[in-house]
């Protein structure tokens, strides 16, 4: 009895293996019917409907199962319910993870990672200079803010000094008029007094009375003039106090700013010494460090002199005020006083001239550097606008980025997947602003900072390099026609030069903006700022740059202006498909437009958003709906085998979980299942 059970059990296992092989062949045959339009991109997927897949699988399974001819002996007598067979796709190429896996499989065989590694190695050669320049720009900017804060207070102090001088001149002129009146009145009194008293006739008595009245009036005028002189002097003393306090306050604020300058320079010196001692490789010693070792503060004697002269003006005026109060001054005394005051103000003016001249030179060089940079950036923007985009691109971008566009549908699925898995982080990048729209004083620092950020990513190379190279191998870009002529090589099966979205696919995938113009201008702007950073570094490291510096920040701005001019020329060559040297000192190390796009892919690793745009382009270029294109296929096949002996005993095996089928009459039935992917 036990033997019969084992015989039927073995027959079931054999039949199960036969059904599994037949179903596997069916599913693999379905997978073999891949979409040829996607295969030209190195991707594989079945775009057949479920009904078409099931029909194909049924034909294959029939050929691979044992014959049911009753005239011949069959050990298993395996029968398939061909009407019950079902084959369907489970995961499609619309799934971002599936798309990523397909791309990785394709690119692992082509292994183009060396292109990116070589590019990174090129830029690693300027790592030290870039990081040093980035540090210099940040330090120069911070130092410049402190110096300008100090200079603003000194400017206010000097402005108040000039106002004080003007107030003294006005007050002195007013007193001069009064002293002139006083002198005339005193002369008249002298003349009237020298005439002596008149006696005798009635007429003489009247004249004497008139003389006395005149003397009384003149003496009253003398009192009035001295009173007015007193009022004028009082007002000046009040003004002196106000001017003195404000000038002193501004000088103290300037001193505080100068103290911060000194503290900042001492901190930089300490950091540089620590880096030099520890032997840090990245920017440990820089020729630019010497700039910060110069003296950028004012001597204490300068502030003491300024405050002392302000005190002298107040003291001299106070002494002269006392003379007026006691009516002990004259016109000649006043002239001598005004000469003394004038000399005090003139001395300060002479002492201020070198500082004012230096500040004016700084202002002129600063403004000239900004003007040159802005002029070059305006020319670069004009050049940037010549994208060569076609009006037909508008319709294509509607299919890609419109409300019902392909990219939008893939992003929705991506967002749902992130919500389901609880993933965090931005998956869809927004269009970046135009770097050429920033002010000139910001553009240079931002460009160097952006280039420096490259080196923080060098240690984070991941699978996205494969995806980046997939795009650059199978999609077109702005200068693809130039490259194909100058660097002949076998064209990709996807024939990127013939795609509907001409000479811009790589830029669209990179930036994701909904128009040709935006994507190409963003690529241009980022390329320009990269070249601006490199050319600024070159200019900054030249000896003439340091020699012409008024302050470190003006030194940097001047280098930016020179770099902006050279960067614009570089862009003209790059957009024309030419090779441009990385730096002037390495004329044999050259890069082209595609190399920079490769670099930007590395700098902007927005993996998920990029995949959705790759999917959208594939769908538009091939006309294949990726949501209906299966990468992973699952099949089911109902089968049965006739039992030779006692069915009831086999049923006992079901209860023991030894079998997962069901005994129906004299036959054992189950469903064979399998799943396969590319």
From TrEMBL:
UniProt region (Disordered), positions on chain: 188-211, 352-377
Basic and acidic residues bias spans: 352-373
Protein name as catalogued: Uncharacterized protein
Organism phylogeny: Bacteria, Bacillati, Bacillota, Bacilli, Bacillales
């Amino acid at each position: 009895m036990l033997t019969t059970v084992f015989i039927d059990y073995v027959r079931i296992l054999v039949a199960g293996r036969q059904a599994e092989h037949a179903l596997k062949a069916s599913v693999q045959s379905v997978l073999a019917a891949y979409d040829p339009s996607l295969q030209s991109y190195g991707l594989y997927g079945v775009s057949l409907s479920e009904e078409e897949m099931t029909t194909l699988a049924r034909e294959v399974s029939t050929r691979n199962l044992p014959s049911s001819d009753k005239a011949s002996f069959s050990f298993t007598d395996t029968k398939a319910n061909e009407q019950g067979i079902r084959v369907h796709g489970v995961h499609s190429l619309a799934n971002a993870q599936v798309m990523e896996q397909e791309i990785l499989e394709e690119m692992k065989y082509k292994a183009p990672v060396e292109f990116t590694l070589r590019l990174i190695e090129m830029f690693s050669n300027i790592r030290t200079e870039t990081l040093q320049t980035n540090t210099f720009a940040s330090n120069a900017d911070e130092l410049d803010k402190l110096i300008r804060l100090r200079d603003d207070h000194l400017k206010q102090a000097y402005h108040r000094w000039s106002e004080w001088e003007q107030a003294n001149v006005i007050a002195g002129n007013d007193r001069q008029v009064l002293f002139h009146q006083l002198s005339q009145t005193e002369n008249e009194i002298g003349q009237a007094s020298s005439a002596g008293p008149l006696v005798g006739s009635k007429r003489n008595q009247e004249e004497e009375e008139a003389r006395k009245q005149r003397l009384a009036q003149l003496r009253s005028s003398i009192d009035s003039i001295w009173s007015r002189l007193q009022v004028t002097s009082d007002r000046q003393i009040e003004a002196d106090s106000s001017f003195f306090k404000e000038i002193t306050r501004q000088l103290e604020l300037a001193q505080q700013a100068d103290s911060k300058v000194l503290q900042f320079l001492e901190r930089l010196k300490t950091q540089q010494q620590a880096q030099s001692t520890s032997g840090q490789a990245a920017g440990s010693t820089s020729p630019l460090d010497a700039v910060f070792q110069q003296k950028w503060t004012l001597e204490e004697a300068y502030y003491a002199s300024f405050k002392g002269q302000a005190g002298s003006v107040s003291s001299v005026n106070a002494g002269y005020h006392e003379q007026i109060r006691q009516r002990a001054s004259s016109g000649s005394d006043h002239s001598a006083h005004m000469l003394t005051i004038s000399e005090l103000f003139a001395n300060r003016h002479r002492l201020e001239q070198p500082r004012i001249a230096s500040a004016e030179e700084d202002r002129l060089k600063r403004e000239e550097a900004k003007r040159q940079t802005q002029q070059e950036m305006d020319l670069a923007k004009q050049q940037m606008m010549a994208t060569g985009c076609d009006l037909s691109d508008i319709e294509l971008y509607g299919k890609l980025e419109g409300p019902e566009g392909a990219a939008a549908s893939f992003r929705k699925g991506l967002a749902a997947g992130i919500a389901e898995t609880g993933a965090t982080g931005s998956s869809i990048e927004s269009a970046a602003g135009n770097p050429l729209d920033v002010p000139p004083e910001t553009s240079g620092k931002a460009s160097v900072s952006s280039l420096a950020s490259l080196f923080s990513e060098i240690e984070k190379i991941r699978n996205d390099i494969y995806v980046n190279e997939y795009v650059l191998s199978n999609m077109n870009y702005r200068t693809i026609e130039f490259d194909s002529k100058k660097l002949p090589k076998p064209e990709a099966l996807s024939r990127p030069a013939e795609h509907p979205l001409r000479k811009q696919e790589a830029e669209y995938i990179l930036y994701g903006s909904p128009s040709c113009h935006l994507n190409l201008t963003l690529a241009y702007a980022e390329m320009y700022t990269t070249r601006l950073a490199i050319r600024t570094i070159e200019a900054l490291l030249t000896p003439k740059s340091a020699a012409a510096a008024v302050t470190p920040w003006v030194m940097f701005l001047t280098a930016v202006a020179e770099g902006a001019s050279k960067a614009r020329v570089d862009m003209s060559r790059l957009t024309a498909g030419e090779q441009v040297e990385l730096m002037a000192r390495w004329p044999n190390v050259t890069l082209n437009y595609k190399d920079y796009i490769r670099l930007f892919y590395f700098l902007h690793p927005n993996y998920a958003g990029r995949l959705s745009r790759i999917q959208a382009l594939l769908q538009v270029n091939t006309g294949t709906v990726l949501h209906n294109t299966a990468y992973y296929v699952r099949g089911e096949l109902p089968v049965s085998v006739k039992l030779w002996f006692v069915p009831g005993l086999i049923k006992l095996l079901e209860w023991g979980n030894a079998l997962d089928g069901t005994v129906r009459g004299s036959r054992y039935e189950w469903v064979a299942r399998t799943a396969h992917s590319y």
